[in-house]
Structure formats: C-alpha cells, structure tokens
Amino acid sequence: MILFPAIDLKDGRCVRLVQGDMDQATVFNDDPAAQAAIFADQGFSWLHVVDLDGAFAGRPMNADAVEDILARTAMPLQLGGGIRDMKTVDGWIARGVARVVIGTAAVRDPDFVREAARVHPGRIAVGIDARDGRVAVEGWARLSEITAEELGRRYEDAGVAALIYTDITRDGILKGLNIEATLRLAKAVAIPVIASGGLASIEDVKRLLEPDCAILEGAISGRALYDGRLDPAEAIALIKAAAALPAGQ
Question: I need a labelling partner for 34 at 20 to 30 A (CA). Which of 10, 62, 129, 211 fits?
C-alpha cells in the first residue's frame, strides 16, 4: 500500500481546499518544492501533485512550481490538473513526471486517454472525482451524468495504470475515506485503484491495511499531514510492518 502525500498548487503555493472550493483555500507552504523535500525526508516513496488552477483553466498554470518540485526531489511524481491533450502529456513526461493523471478529458475525450496510455504505457492514470456517485469535471465545478463505475469500466482495456477515486464531499474535511465507494469501484474493474478524499488519521491507514482493502494500490493524504493529525513516521512504519507480514496474516 502506497501512501501518497499531496501537494495542491494554487497561484504557485501549496494549499488545501475544502470540498474543492477554490474560495476555501488554506496556504500551508509558499514554497511547494520545499514541501516536497520535506515529504521526501519523511520517507514517502511517491508524491501526488495537482495543479488546481490548471484544472479550472484546462491547461497547466503552475508549471514553474511543478518543475521546481521535480528539480528538488527524486521521488516519482504523479501529476494532475489541466492535462487535456497529448502535447501536455508528452511535455510532462519528458520533464520527468512519472505518472500523468487525466480527469476531465477522461469523461469528454476517451480516445485521447486511450492514445496517451498507448504511447506512454504504465504512465497514465485516470482521476475519478465523484459527488453522490456522479463524476465531476472542470476542477469539480460541473457534474457529468456518468458514474464512477461506468467511467472506470470505460478504460478496462486501455492500459491505464491506475484510477484515483476521490469522494468530493469528504475532501479536505477530515471525515475519513469513503472506503465503501472506493472498494465498490475497485471490485468493478481490474485497474488498480487509489483512494482519496478525507483521510483523517492513523485509523484510516489501519483501515486501509485490513484484508478487504488489499485490492487497493494506496491512498492520498493531504490536510491530515499538514495539520499534524497524521504522523508520517507512524503511518509509514505501519505500512512497512504490514508489508513484511506473510500473506494472509
């Protein structure tokens, strides 16, 4: 199980939102690259970065901050936000992004996602951000008619590396992950699923390490890490200890 610390970028700064509301942004670090270095020093193995401005604009808006992060840390970086054409995908992967996350375009332009996954095998993830079961697009500003499970099944044979499932209603409010909905998606597809939205404490990490969650690739944590509710050393130690156990224990 991989625990992905999150860096959300707005106006070049590291922020956290409440349920995707850009008007409810709390700035946690003016230097995202420094924050990435902190996460690397804490022992995390991956980094999840979202260009929030880009998600609304439909194109990269915090490229300088992302490039600074890439320059400051060797951690593999998973990047989403405003990635809606092959030129952007190619550009980010050429700069060193390990995995590109496609959200809005996954709903509106499936051929693009399939082409990206074909050209960059193992490097494309689909972001599924849902509110009451329906997938949201354009930085969560609009709801589509498609469900999370329907969107996931659309890419079963596309070679997508992962699905990142976010329950918007829980994101940034520290109410716990929506394990039920995340597992429902994971059972509906063969693609690895990453849980996101609401991870609040070490209890959530423990829940993710229970047998029924073994089908998940991992989870993303944001606000809980920034405000001290989740101790990175404790979480990482717990995950490593679980990984060391013989199968079935």
Answer: 129
For the question of residue 8 being annotated catalytic, the response is yes
Task: Name the catalytic one among 8, 51, 53, 171.
Answer: 8
Output the pLDDT for position 177: 93
CA distance 87 to 101: 14
Q: What is the pLDDT of residues 63-77, one digit of tens each?
A: 999 999 999 999 999
Question: What is the model's pTM?
Answer: 0.92
Active-site option among 129, 167, 171, 204: 129
Residue 21, amino acid = D
The CATH superfamily label for domain 2-244 reads: Aldolase class I (3.20.20.70)
Instruction: Locate 66 and state its tokens.
Output: 């992302």
Written as six digits, the tokens of 219 are 């989870």
Residue 19 has pLDDT above 60, yes or no: no
Sequence ranges of the domains in the chain: 2-244
- Please compute Rg for the chain using Cα positions: 17
Q: Mean of the per-residue pLDDT values for the chain?
A: 91
Rounded CA-CA distance 147/87 in Å is 28
Contact 223, 172 (CB under 8 A): yes
